Amino acid sequence: MSIAVIGAGAFGTALAVSLAANGPVTLWGRDAARIRNNPRLPGVTLPPQVTPTTDLAQAARAETLVLALPAQVLGGFLAENAALLDGKALVSAAKGIDLTTLTGPSQLIARACPAATAAVLTGPSFAADIARGLPTALTLACTDPERGEALQHCLSTPVLRLYLSSDVTGAELGGALKNVIAIAAGAAIGSGQGDSARAAIITRGFAEMTRLATDLGAEAQTLTGLSGLGDLTLTCTSDQSRNYRFGHSRGAREDFDRSTTVEGAATAQAVGAIAEKRGIDMPIVQAVAALVSTQVSVEKLMDQLLNRPLRKE
Ligand SMILES: NC(=O)C1=CN([C@@H]2O[C@H](COP(=O)(O)OP(=O)(O)OC[C@H]3O[C@@H](n4cnc5c(N)ncnc54)[C@H](O)[C@@H]3O)[C@@H](O)[C@H]2O)C=CC1
Ligand SMILES: O=C(CO)COP(=O)(O)O
C-alpha cells in the first residue's frame, strides 16, 4: 500500500520519518523549505525514503493518505481538495473537534469524501519521540474490519505498534478531549494548586470524557485504552505537551507563543457547546472553555469547581 503523509508539521514529519522504515513515503506540505527543515522538529532530517513535495496531486497518487493537519483546518482542507482525496484511505491524525460543525475528523472525512475509507490514528505519542524512533503504541480505529486490519499492518513499524479498534467515535473523542483536560491540568500546576489537584483533574476529567463519549455512542472500554486514558495520562503529566504548557502559562500568568498548535482550546469550546446541547455535566471542560474565551482567572475557575454541590463519585 503506497503511503503519503499530508501535513508537514511536527506530527506529519515524525510519522513520515517513522513510516520510512517500511518503504517509500511521500510527505506533502505547503512550504518546500520547511518540509526539509521543520522548525517544530529541530535536528530531525528526512531519510532518503521520504519524498518531500508541495504538489498535492502527486501526494494524492498514494493509496493511503495520513492527514496530519490541525483539527480546525481539516474540514476546509478536505472540502477544497475532495476531488483528489475521495475514494482513498484517509487516516486522520488530528486530535480535536471542529468548532464550525461540532464533529470529529471521521465525520469531516465522511461529509467531504463519502467514497473514502475513513480511519483515525490516535494515542499517546509525542512527535519528537516518534521521530527519534522511540517505542510508541497507538490506536488505529476504522469501522471497516478488513480495511482497518490492512491499515494497521501498513502503518505499524518495528517501534510503532498499532492496536486496532472499530470504535472510531470513542478513539477520536479520547484524543480530542484529553487535550482539553491537559489544559486544565497545566493550569492547576501553573497556578500552584499542586499534584493532588492535578490527579483530581485527571480522574474527574476522565469521568467527563467517558460521559460524553458514551452519550455519543462510544464504548466505555475504548476510553480506558491508549486513545483515552493512555493519552490523557501522557498529556496531563508532560512538559512536552503544548496543551499542558498552554494551560500552565495561563495558570502562571506567563506569555505563550500564539503560533503554537493548541488543539484543546477550540475543542473546549466545541465540546462545551455539545455538552450544553445534550445536557451533559462537564464542569472541567466548561471551565477550560471559559479560560480560553475570557479573561477569567484560573483561581476563580478553581473556586467555582470546588464550590459545586457535593455528590457521589
Ligand atoms: N505534535 C505531536 O506530538 C502530535 C500531534 N498530533 C496531532 O496532529 C495534528 C497536527 O499537529 P502538529 O503536526 O503537531 O502541528 P504543527 O503546528 O507542528 O503543524 C501543523 C501543520 O499544518 C499545516 N497547516 C496549517 N494550516 C493548513 C492548511 N490550511 N492547509 C494545509 N496545511 C496547513 C502547517 O503549515 C503545519 O505544517 C494535531 O491535531 C495534533 O493534535 C497528534 C499526536 C502527536
Ligand atoms: O497528542 C499529543 C500526545 O499524544 C501531543 O500533545 P500536544 O498537542 O499537547 O503537544
From TrEMBL:
**Transmembrane parts of this sequence:** none
Example GO CC term: the record gives: cytosol
Stretches assigned to the Glycerol-3-phosphate dehydrogenase NAD-dependent C-terminal domain: 167-302
User: What is annotated as the active site?
Assistant: K178 (proton acceptor)
According to the UniProt entry, its GO molecular function terms are: glycerol-3-phosphate dehydrogenase (NAD+) activity; glycerol-3-phosphate dehydrogenase (NADP+) activity; NAD binding
Q: What keywords are assigned to this protein?
A: Cytoplasm, Lipid biosynthesis, Lipid metabolism, NAD, NADP, Nucleotide-binding, Oxidoreductase, Phospholipid biosynthesis, Phospholipid metabolism
- Indicate which residues the UniProt annotation says bind NAD(+): G7, A8, G9, A10, F11, G12, A127, R242
Please give the InterPro entries that the UniProt record associates with this protein: 6-PGluconate_DH-like_C_sf, 6PGD_dom2, G3P_DH_NAD-dep, G3P_DH_NAD-dep_C, G3P_DH_NAD-dep_N, NAD(P)-bd_dom_sf
- List where in the cell it is found: Cytoplasm
* GO BP, sorted A to Z: carbohydrate metabolic process; glycerol-3-phosphate biosynthetic process; glycerol-3-phosphate catabolic process; glycerophospholipid metabolic process; phospholipid biosynthetic process
Its main localization is cytoplasm
The catalysed reaction is: sn-glycerol 3-phosphate + NAD(+) = dihydroxyacetone phosphate + NADH + H(+); sn-glycerol 3-phosphate + NADP(+) = dihydroxyacetone phosphate + NADPH + H(+)
Kindly list the positions annotated as binding NADPH: F11, R30, K95, A127, R242, E263
Q: What is its EC number?
A: 1.1.1.94
Query: Which pathway, per its entry?
Result: Membrane lipid metabolism; glycerophospholipid metabolism
Q: Where does substrate bind?
A: K95, R242, N243
Ligand binding (sn-glycerol 3-phosphate): K95, G123, S125, K178, D231, S241, R242, N243
Which segments constitute the Glycerol-3-phosphate dehydrogenase NAD-dependent N-terminal domain? 2-146
Q: Which family does it belong to?
A: Belongs to the NAD-dependent glycerol-3-phosphate dehydrogenase family.
What does the function comment of this entry state? Catalyzes the reduction of the glycolytic intermediate dihydroxyacetone phosphate (DHAP) to sn-glycerol 3-phosphate (G3P), the key precursor for phospholipid synthesis.
Q: Which NCBIfam families match?
A: PRK00094.1-2, PRK00094.1-4
Name of this chain's protein:
Glycerol-3-phosphate dehydrogenase [NAD(P)+]
The organism is: Paracoccus tegillarcae
What gene name does this entry carry? Answer: gpsA
